[in-house]
Design goal:
The complex is a heterodimer of chains A (about 260) and B (about 270). Chain A has 8 helices and 10 strands. Chain A has about 260 residues and is of the alpha/beta class. Chain A folds into 2 domains: about 130 residues, Rossmann fold (3-Layer(aba) Sandwich); about 70 residues, Helicase, Ruva Protein, domain 3 (Orthogonal Bundle). Chain A has a 6-stranded mixed β-sheet with strand order 6-7-8-4-9-10, sandwiched between helices. Chain A has a 4-stranded antiparallel β-sheet with strand order 2-3-1-5. In chain A, a hairpin with a 2-residue loop joins strand 2 and strand 3. In chain A, helix 3 packs parallel to helix 5. The radius of gyration of chain A is 20 Å and the shape is globular. With about 270 residues, chain B is mainly α. Chain B has one domain. Chain B contains 14 helices and no strands. The longest helix of chain B is centred in the first third of the chain and has 25 residues. Chain B is globular and about 55 Å long. Classes of the chains: A alpha/beta (about 260), B mainly alpha (about 270). The interface between A and B is medium-sized, with 30 and 22 residues. Chain B: It is a multi-pass membrane protein. Chain B: Belongs to the ABC-2 integral membrane protein family. Chain B: Keywords: Cell membrane, Membrane, Polysaccharide transport, Sugar transport, Transmembrane, Transmembrane helix, Transport. Chain B: InterPro entries: ABC2_TM.
Chain lengths: ~260, ~270
């Protein structure tokens, strides 16, 4: 069974810094969550503010919102990395966060050793982990490089292997920040197919993205975040319509505001 | 979050963390492998550095304190090998969570896993260092007694202390980033006031409390005295156990209360 329930969950960061006030001033632009008053020597940033939602099997959720709306924080909250500072978060099922594919890879070790290490990390026994190697090796097309230290790899090779390992074990819940694409055109097709297989087999899938076309393609539900709060939550088309309307009416923050807010 | 929720969650973290031995074993061994990667002697540099240090400093101090080297070198070897473990555990306790930042920020693993990672690393270090003890015993013709069998018990107490210290200092040092430096300096000072390199018999009268009331000395002697052929006295055992209990209570209380905040502080 896979499910995620957030009840009145908040994520509040206290930024401890002797120059808290000047930091507060520089953060006063409308980027990011609500900045609460500074008490004493720290500033409070409420990245997520009293969020209540539940995700059930079959949910394919698009996370919408401009930079700093709380999408990444939300992914970390949903994964269990952040435990809410207020409220509760209950997560059932195995979670894969495809947030950092090459996490924990040791470049002095060979590709093969790294595959095994990562599989052990995901809860496998060493013997089980070894059985994964041939399939990942074939997929990543590394050939003899598999038994060379990873420091000899090109960055493309590292990414292929990291992607291969990250998608080798099927989780119940997948959380992703932007759609992953790896390698040259030919490999990218193969990778996309592999990723889509994994996504469709997952019970719950959450994708944060600025690319509305991608969100339409993979998701059936959308959650629109603004300043750490849920503005809208519902069927993807309804939410996207409202979102695009808002964008058209001059809320430049609604669509990807990379440049405007840099 | 209600107060009542801290303890069940902390217990879950500890139980699941300790059960994930495959992960912390792989991480701890990986740390050592990474440090000595591409070196010819590899991790045996640990043993070699320790041997060089113990023999040179033991000889010098032996002459300074007018000690019989046949007695003094084994004494320094057993003490220093154990001290290196204790000092390493304390110093690295301050970075257990900051060192594992990438993992903590991406995977919802129990925090205990990363404390255990540090323990595995130092246990492996100790396993390499302890090799010099039989070598020194052999060269100095020092006898081996049945009391050696008590050393693993002492080691267990030291490792438990390391686990608690990992929880306690790990949490504190993640929140207060000046602490690791302070800890490092304190460990240095404690080294000088603990009878590691000097015989405790050189202290007389009022100064003897340095040894009698020193919890670090008690922990160290729990391992080093059995190696040398003595059964640790009740005072040593009592002090070490009392230290463990106090440390454990403080560590678990702090860990339970602030465990969820660790990632926020990274």
């Amino acid at each position: 069974m896979a499910s995620i329930d957030l009840r009145d969950a908040s994520v509040e960061f206290k930024i401890y810094n002797a120059r808290g006030r000047s930091l507060r001033n520089s953060l006063m632009q409308r980027v990011g969550g609500r900045i609460e008053g500074a008490s004493g020597d720290h500033v409070c940033i409420r990245a997520l503010d009293h969020i209540t939602l539940s995700l059930r099997p079959g949910d394919r959720v698009a996370l919408l919102g401009h930079n700093g709306a709380g999408k990444s924080t939300m992914l970390r909250l949903l994964s269990g990395v952040y435990e809410p500072s207020g409220g509760a978060a209950d997560i059932t099922g195995s979670v894969a966060t495809l947030l950092d594919l090459s996490m924990g890879m040791d470049f002095e070790m060979t590709g093969r050793q790294n595959v095994i290490l990562r599989a052990v990390f995901l809860g496998m026994k060493r013997a089980e982990a070894r059985k994964l190697v041939p399939e990942i090796a074939a997929f990543s097309e590394l050939g003899d490089y598999l038994d060379l230290p990873m420091r000899t790899y090109s960055s493309g090779m590292v990414l292929r292997l990291a992607f291969g390992v990250s998608t080798a074990i099927q989780p119940d819940i997948i959380l992703m920040d932007e759609m992953i694409s790896v390698g040259d055109a030919e490999f990218a097709v193969k990778a996309r197919a592999r990723l889509e297989t994994m996504l469709s087999a997952a019970r719950i899938f959450v994708l944060a993205s600025h690319d509305l076309a991608t969100l339409r393609q993979y998701c059936n539900r959308a959650i629109w975040l603004k300043e750490g709060r849920i503005v809208a939550d519902g069927p993807i088309e309804d939410v996207l319509h409202r979102f695009e309307d808002r964008a058209a009416h001059g809320d430049q923050g609604a669509l990807s505001g990379n440049v405007a807010h840099a | 979050m209600g107060k009542t929720r801290y303890w069940p969650r902390a217990r879950k973290d500890i139980v699941e963390g300790l059960a994930s031995w495959r992960i912390y074993w792989a991480l701890g061994i990986g740390d050592i492998r990474q440090r000595y990667a591409r070196s010819r002697f590899g991790q045996f540099w640990i043993t070699l550095s320790m041997a060089i240090f113990v023999v040179s400093i033991g000889t010098v101090y032996g002459f300074l304190f007018h000690q019989d080297l046949h007695q003094f070198l084994p004494y320094v070897a057993c003490n220093y090998v154990t001290w290196a473990l204790i000092a390493g555990l304390i110093t690295d306790s301050s970075t257990v969570f900051t060192q594992s930042e990438t993992y903590l920020r991406h995977e919802p693993l129990p925090k205990t896993v990363f404390v255990m990672r540090m323990l595995v690393r130092h246990l492996m270090n100790f396993a390499h260092n302890i090799l010099i003890v039989p070598a020194v015993f052999l060269v100095m013709r020092h006898g081996v007694h049945w009391t050696v069998l008590l050393a693993p018990l002492g080691l267990l107490v030291v490792m438990a202390g390391g686990l608690f210290s990992g929880y306690l200092l790990g949490v504190l040092c993640t929140r207060f980033r000046d602490l690791p430096q302070i800890v490092q300096n304190l460990v240095q000072i404690v080294f000088f006031v603990t009878p590691v390199m000097w015989p405790s018999s050189t202290l007389h009268g009022a100064a003897a409390w340095l040894v009698h009331l020193n919890p670090f000395a008690a922990m160290m002697r729990l391992v080093s005295e059995p190696l040398l052929g003595d059964v640790p006295g009740w005072r040593t055992v009592g002090l070490a156990c009392a230290t463990l209990v106090v440390l454990g209570a403080l560590a678990l209380a702090l860990f339970a209360r602030f465990r969820a905040r660790i990632v926020y502080w990274l």
